[in-house]
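Attaching the record inline, Q. Sequence:
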Amino acid sequence: ILDDGENPLALAWKLGSGDTLQVVKISYPPVPEGSAGAGAGSGGGPGADAGAGQQIEQQLQEKGQAEVYGIYFDFASDKIKPESEPVLKEIADALGHNPTWKLRVEGHTDNVGGDQYNMDLSQRRAEAVKQALGARYHIVADRLTPQGFGASHPKEPNDTLAGRARNRRVELVRE
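Structure, as predicted:
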């Protein structure tokens, strides 16, 4: 994985009979003007001007849970990338519209790394989301319960880049 903010790429290759090379370009939505400064984030999801909070809020209302894919972290880290800000704002907006809601913030990883490492990483990432929502949007801490699941609840097999990407996610569950 080439972790270059200007040109992030994931490379996979197989040598032997039928040599193959797969290149996946990773792109993030642009950081909106006027979003929180350094250390804040921006990512996939509607911004403040595009009905913020509606997709996640609707899923939480209808199903009691929402899969969230627009929160990005540095590789093997719990540091939230700036590209995550629109989704964090969307979550905060949903909580603002529903002041009685309490959510479990579930962290999930792919299977790269050991089970204990992934369990710890997913817990730290769930806690980072809780901390960011509190610090940036003043969401009261007792409304969010972080819980890490590591690679124990995959959505897809971990044998492809796409499958591993779907497994790296945050899920929100109404309590």
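Residues 115-137 form the longest helix (23 residues). Confidence is low (pLDDT under 50) at residues 31-53.

More tomorrow.
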